[in-house]
């Protein structure tokens, strides 16, 4: 391995497994672009060759209709995968996009005979951060003989002894995700032996937050994940807490579990969600009073039972990838918040305050949730019945700041940017926090949010905000 600073990162590289495969069809340009938006450092790309010699990004040996990739021309593969809403890209287009976005490439070479063409393509596009790997150790030997400037990786299957299987490779890539507790294998002795051999270790694709917490602090070169935002959590370490309006709603359909999980996996502090009551008295998450905009249903959401709502598709409108995504219940969202040790902003739409508060209490999240509603009567009812509930008040709804602070004794006061920052100190002196709401993705607007120095920022574009903070 050619020595260079990038091969010994201060933290593991977030390697997007086949792109951000949790949010778009794997190995597509869409998946790779999303990966870069949400914090991936490198893209893991599966590489095969077609019958007419086109090098492509595709994982399986066969198409969904049984045709073998190696026996099918690229035009036919593209037509078939496009019809399935997952157009297969040529490798050269993936590499060109990586060069444009500044992403590294982790090449998983499936067909060994494209090893050298892959190497040359990366060099031609000026990719500096690349790892070339395969399950077949012969690929590493081919790269060594070609004096590849990139680290050579061997993917070690479960059951194989890593050092003998990956002998001569620069990177030992452990594909052990099917073990119950693979993190327990990452012992000091394992790393000491690897480092003594001049090798480093890359990690299987990991999507479990508990297991990720145990491995992201280990001295590995990178961690693969369908959720690359989970690896290094770009939402952490900001100068304020971030509230993700309807979840990461630019990555996954708003007010759904995928959108909420993306926000929480990325380390953002809060998800914001809208609470509606069903015809049979359950609480679900949905913004509009009617179903048409974000589901295949019709009419008022309050006129439907939970069972009827759960039969609807709340994802296809956003992307075919999310077809079949369900309208979530409040309890499901609170369980997700618990799993990620996150927090939630609950907006009461048609849902009554008492059962919503009870669900929060049942989940043990009283200190990690705050409420707001356009319905002032609902907030007054909540304050009267739950004196310890955390409530937000909007400054724009009151004539004076004193009225804002007196009405519901809020724990948080929300401002918009045009309202200025002059009253922030008085809010904090009263024991409340300041939240600024800004839904635009304009860098100038996001810069104003940062300059305002709120305690919380309620935004539609949390990943853009993190990039702006670190610009």
Give the SSE map.
Layout: E1 13-17, H1 29-37, E2 42-49, E3 55-57, H2 74-83, H3 91-101, E4 104-109, H4 115-124, E5 130-134, H5 137-145, E6 152-157, H6 162-165, E7 171-175, H7 188-196, E8 200-205, H8 209-215, E9 222-225, H9 229-232, E10 241-245, H10 257-265, E11 270-277, E12 283-285, H11 306-310, H12 330-339, E13 343-348, H13 353-362, E14 369-372, H14 376-385, E15 390-394, H15 401-408, E16 412-416, H16 424-429, E17 433-438, H17 443-452, E18 456-459, H18 462-469
Parallel strand pairs: 1-2, 1-9, 2-4, 4-5, 5-6, 6-7, 7-8, 8-9, 10-11, 10-18, 11-13, 13-14, 14-15, 15-16, 16-17, 17-18
Antiparallel strand pairs: 2-3, 11-12
Helix pairs in contact: 1-3, 10-12, 17-18
Give me a quick take on this structure:
The protein has 471 residues and is α/β, with parallel strands linked by helices. Helix content is 32%, strand content 20%. The protein has helices at 29-37, 74-83, 91-101, 115-124, 137-145, 162-165, 188-196, 209-215, 229-232, 257-265, 306-310, 330-339, 353-362, 376-385, 401-408, 424-429, 443-452, 462-469; strands at 13-17, 42-49, 55-57, 104-109, 130-134, 152-157, 171-175, 200-205, 222-225, 241-245, 270-277, 283-285, 343-348, 369-372, 390-394, 412-416, 433-438, 456-459.
